[in-house]
């Protein structure tokens, strides 16, 4: 019997609401706890690191030395994780370019939340500088990308900026996922029900000769019951077992987003966060029943809790034998230089 392939990814980032939270509670401690569980089961994480935050942190640390320990702690953790076999890849939340530290707290400006809110030249610069920062920490092994807030479309606007800096693998799509929020729009409703595919200008459309490789996040259908439970169970969720490690506040969505979640079934990522972690086994079985051979669950260190980590621990124990993969296992799928060059030109024209 072939062991199932499991990919576990984490978006390594702070909060974007009124309080960003601390590096120790949003990043260092929960990631250490998750890595301990992974070690127990022979599993590895792929971390999508919010590199533009690290860039801003490094810049502000020159003005405010009190930030230097945070930067040093992150660098040490990422270096240690890489040496242990975990994977470090690129995540971008570009609003950090408009935000600053005032000596006491981060003052966030999210009016340019999406990468698409920047012009063509700025996008390429942001990708290049962010990747350079990461490679300076973990080496030249960065080639995968996840869009902040899943805001990947329209893809041609960012495609050339990614390819120009050696980013050719995307892992943003979760098939069936949709957001009609004005500031955080995405639509993966027509994405292939597949483990992996190549694409060119549209991540929802297979192009076997395309320069990009998509490794989607596994998706699951979630009923309103879960969100009502979350809304009505604040007392439960504030207990030590369910309280997230992160000590910040989330960025609010539009009213329509919450109304949709509370009134009808929606498609969600297979998640290691909070109460959703209790659905990992169900999501895995659903993916397996559909014939897919790779199960990809994601999460955020800031949103992990004792409950969610226990659920992850139990899920991996229940699987028994499994093959833990990272994006490094797909680097042999890199397109040729000719394909990349041709696609850069085409995407510039389309943008």
Structure explained in plain terms:
It is a single chain. The protein has 351 residues and is of the alpha/beta class. The chain is 39% helix and 16% strand. It contains eleven helices and 15 strands. Helix 2 (51-63) crosses helix 4 (120-138) and helix 5 packs antiparallel against helix 11. The N and C termini lie far apart (47 Å).
Concise summary:
This protein is α/β, with parallel strands linked by helices.
Portion in helices: 25-40%
Ends distance: 47 Å
Biggest beta-sheet profile: 9 strands, mixed
Instruction: List the quaternary state of the chains.
Output: single chain
**Can you tell me the overall shape?**
globular
Structural class estimated from helices and strands = alpha/beta
Q: Over the alpha carbons, how many angstroms does the gyration radius reach?
A: 19 Å
Mean pLDDT: 91
User: What proportion strand?
Assistant: 15-25%
Q: What's the SSE pattern?
A: EHEHHEEEHEHEEEEEEHHHEHEHEH
**Total number of β-strand segments?**
15
Uncertain runs are none
